[in-house]
Amino acid sequence: MISGNVKKKIVKALKKQMPEAGISYNPSELVKNRKDYDFYLKDGMVYICFDSYELGQGGTGVAFTVKGRYK
């Protein structure tokens, strides 16, 4: 679904989308020691999901899109 350097692509997407979502958290720290990601597929997009506690905020989790392919 996501090829190449997955962590680098996720960090790049997060750096762009987190400020738009009002989240000020270091994206590199989110992916630094991770081996697995929660995700879902919808309308040709890959959505990476993070729980609110991972982002240092209350409320529900947040999903960010990452460029990928699936059919």
Give a description of the structure.
Strand 1 and strand 2 form a beta hairpin. Helix content is 28%, strand content 23%. With 71 residues, it is an alpha+beta fold. It is built from two helices and three strands.
Task: Summarize the helices and strands and which ones pair or pack.
Elements: H1 6-20, H2 27-31, E1 38-42, E2 45-50, E3 62-66
Antiparallel strand pairs: 1-2, 2-3
The N- and C-terminal alpha carbons lie at a distance of 9 Å
Q: What percentage of the residues does DSSP assign to strands (E)? A: 15-25%
Q: How many extended strands? A: 3
How much is the average pLDDT? Answer: 82
Q: Characterize the overall form.
A: globular
Characterize the largest beta sheet: strand count, sense, and whether it forms a barrel.
3 strands, antiparallel
Helix and strand element order: HHEEE
Number of helices: 2
Structural class: alpha+beta
Helix content: 25-40%
Low-confidence stretches: none
Strand order of the largest sheet: 1-2-3
The radius of gyration computed from the alpha-carbon positions, rounded to a whole number of angstroms, is 12 Å
